[in-house]
Each structure stands twice: as C-alpha cells, then as structure tokens.
C-alpha cells in the first residue's frame, strides 16, 4: 500500500473515532473524562512518589501530597470545564433557538452539530417538529381567517341580492298597487287591488322570513337539531336534480346549544357543497347516537374529490378546514371519506353530554 493511501486510511480512521467520541452521550463524556483524570493522576502520582521516596528517603512528603492535590484540582477543573462546554454546546444552541423564538423569530430551527448525542438529537427533532407544526397551524389559521372574511362578504352579497331581487321588488309592487288602489273608481276595482296587495304582502313576508331563517333558523332554538336538519333537508329538496333524505335515531334529549349549532352548520355546509360541487343525484343525512358520541353523517353519490387537497387561491378544501375547526371547538372530530369518482362522506362526531350537560 502506498504512503498516500496509508495516510488517507489513517485520517479516515481518526475521523471516525473523533465522530464516535463526539457522539458519546453526555453522561459518558463526563464519566470517562473523570476516569482519565483519576487514572492518569494515580499513575503519575505513584511514579513520582516512588521516585521521590527512593531518591530522598529521609524527606517528609507532605508538600508532595499538597502539590499532587493542587495539580489534580487544577487539571480536573480545566478538563471538566472543556468537556462540559463541548458536551453542553447542543443545549446552548437549543437555548439560543428558544430565545430567538421568544423574540419573535418564527423561522428558527435547531442545528446541534457533530458533538450531540442521541438524547439531544431527539430533543432537537421534537423542538423542530413543534415549530413546523406551529408554522403550519399559523398558515392554516391565516387561510381560515381569509376564508371567514370571504364567507362574510359572500353572505352579505347574497343577502343584498336576495333583498334587492325579491323583498325590494315585492315592496315596490306594493307601492304601485297602493297607488292603483288610490285611483280606483269603483268598489270592485278597489277590491281587486286589495286582494293583490294581500298576496304581495304575504310574498314579501315569506321572502324576509326565508332570508332570516337562512341566517339563523329559529326552529333550531325552539325544536332542536333534528327538526332544524329536517327543515334544511326539505329546503334542499326544492332544488332540481338532487334528492336528500334524513334519518334520526336514538336522540333522547337535546344537545348543548353550542353543539347543536356546530352540527347544524356542518350539515348546512355539507349540503351546500353537494349542491355546488358534487354533481350528485342522492344525499343521505344521518343523525344518531353512537356509544358516547352524537354522529352527523352526510353522504352523497357524486363525483367525489381528494380530501387532502387544499388550494387557498380557489378556496378548495378550506370549507373542510372550517368544519374541522367548528367541530374541534366542541371537543369533536371530523372525518372526510372520499375519492374521485366515488362520492363523499362527511362524518362529524361530538361527545354526548351526560345528565349534567357535560361531555362524557
């Protein structure tokens, strides 16, 4: 073997040994450093003592003992200081990352270097994963906030359009017929205009009532979740091309008001998504009690989708994020089962309250 090859092999061996020593756990770094200090001190002290005793048999050796103690303490101090500084460097880096996060820097990640051991690596990985999760949660919250703002604007636009196209037109017709009534010349014509006014008033009241029910159905507060969902399904069936059915089982009492509102909004959003995107011909809504939970399920036979795909630009998938956030607020969970061409199933599961109104 040529000298260059031997030198390269030797450097590689030394590098591996160095990396192995640097990766030694902190406990063993301190242990072996102190073992080395004690062992070398014992050997060196013994050799010097033997030499001194044989060379100067009549001398008193107390000063030699004091010298050994002082030198041992100095060596132990500096060696342990160096070992601890090197060994605790990963913790210093972790503390620096924590301080940076506390100062408002969210893009900090921990890099421990070569002298870290397995326990420090696990701690750093857990810390970095926590930061990644926090960053992901922050992004989802921003997306959800944008979705909420957009939903508010869409709802305002829809209300304004419905009030203008229906209620406002009905009120305008009322004004026109009132003027015609004022100009009526005989009782028969006046009676005819009164009848038309009655019909227009009833239509305007129905339009306003429908808009109000869309905002907050009073049936939810008066009769509960099951009745509200049945009413929503009836309204949904007025659409062309889609048939919805609802089944309610084992609901022997009312849920807390907040829980009922969350489940109603989930069902409302799920049915709305079916009408807008699913291209389905059939929807099945199921509300039941399942062991310790109340379960709401909305299943359709539409074209399906990929539940994991979220597009903030188009808003695709953000409705599911909003539903998950709603259900999580009442201690529940949302499950989405779907794939392209195989329909979709939205399942919301929330804790069933005990007799005191608390979740089991």
Written overview of the protein:
By secondary structure, the protein is an alpha+beta fold. The chain has helices spanning 3-22, 26-55, 62-87, 89-102, 118-182, 187-215, 218-222, 225-236, 257-278, 318-329, and strands spanning 243-249, 282-290, 293-300, 333-338, 344-351. Among the domains are: 3-87, no CATH class; 219-351, 2-Layer Sandwich (Heat Shock Protein 90). 65% of the residues lie in helices and 11% in strands. The chain has a 5-stranded mixed beta sheet, covered by helices on one side. The longest helix is centred in the middle third of the chain and has 65 residues, at 118-182. The radius of gyration is 39 Å and the shape is rod-shaped. Residues 312-316 have low confidence and may be disordered.
Fold blueprint:
Elements: H1 3-22, H2 26-55, H3 62-87, H4 89-102, H5 118-182, H6 187-215, H7 218-222, H8 225-236, E1 243-249, H9 257-278, E2 282-290, E3 293-300, H10 318-329, E4 333-338, E5 344-351
Parallel strand pairs: 1-2
Antiparallel strand pairs: 2-3, 3-5, 4-5
Helix pairs in contact: 2-3, 5-6, 5-10, 8-9, 9-10
Output the helix-strand order.
HHHHHHHHEHEEHEE
| Count of individual helical segments | 10
Strand order of the largest sheet: 1-2-3-5-4
Structural class: alpha+beta
Approximate strand percentage? 5-15%
* Largest beta-sheet details: 5 strands, mixed
Mean pLDDT: 77
**What's the architecture of the domain at 219-351 in CATH terms?**
2-Layer Sandwich
Q: Could you name the CATH homologous superfamily of the domain at 219-351?
A: Histidine kinase-like ATPase, C-terminal domain
């Amino acid at each position: 073997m040529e000298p260059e090859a031997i030198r390269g092999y030797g450097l590689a061996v030394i590098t591996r040994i160095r990396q192995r020593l640097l990766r030694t756990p902190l406990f063993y770094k301190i242990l072996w450093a102190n073992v080395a200090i004690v062992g070398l001190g014992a050997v060196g002290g013994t050799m010097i003592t033997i030499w001194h005793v044989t060379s100067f048999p009549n001398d008193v050796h107390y000063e030699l003992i004091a010298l050994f103690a002082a030198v041992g303490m100095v060596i132990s101090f500096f060696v342990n200081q160096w070992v601890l500084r090197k060994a605790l460097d990963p913790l210093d880096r972790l503390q620096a990352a924590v301080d940076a996060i506390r100062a408002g820097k969210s893009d900090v990640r921990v890099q421990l270097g070569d002298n870290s051991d397995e326990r420090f690596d696990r701690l750093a990985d857990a810390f970095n994963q926590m930061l990644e999760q926090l960053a992901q949660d922050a992004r989802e919250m921003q997306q959800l906030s944008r979705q909420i703002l957009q939903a508010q604007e869409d709802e305002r636009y829809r209300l304004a359009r419905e009030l203008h196209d229906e209620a406002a037109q009905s009120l305008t017709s009322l004004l026109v017929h009132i003027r015609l009534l004022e100009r009526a010349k005989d009782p028969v014509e006046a009676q005819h205009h009164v009848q038309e006014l009655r019909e227009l008033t009833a239509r305007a009241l129905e339009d306003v009532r429908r808009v109000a029910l869309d905002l907050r159905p009073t049936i939810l507060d008066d009769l509960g979740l099951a009745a509200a969902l049945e009413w929503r399904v009836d309204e949904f069936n007025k659409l062309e091309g889609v048939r919805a059915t609802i089944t309610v089982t084992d609901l022997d009492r009312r849920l807390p008001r907040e829980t009922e509102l969350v489940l109603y909004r989930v069902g409302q959003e799920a049915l709305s998504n079916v009408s807008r995107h699913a291209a389905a011909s059939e929807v099945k809504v199921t509300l039941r009690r399942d062991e310790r939970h109340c379960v709401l399920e909305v299943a359709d036979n539409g074209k399906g989708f990929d539940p994991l795909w979220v597009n903030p630009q188009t808003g695709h998938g953000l409705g599911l994020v909003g539903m998950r956030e709603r259900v999580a607020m009442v201690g529940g969970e949302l499950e989405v089962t779907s794939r392209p061409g195989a329909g979709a199933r939205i399942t919301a599961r929330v804790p069933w309250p005990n007799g005191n109104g608390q979740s089991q």
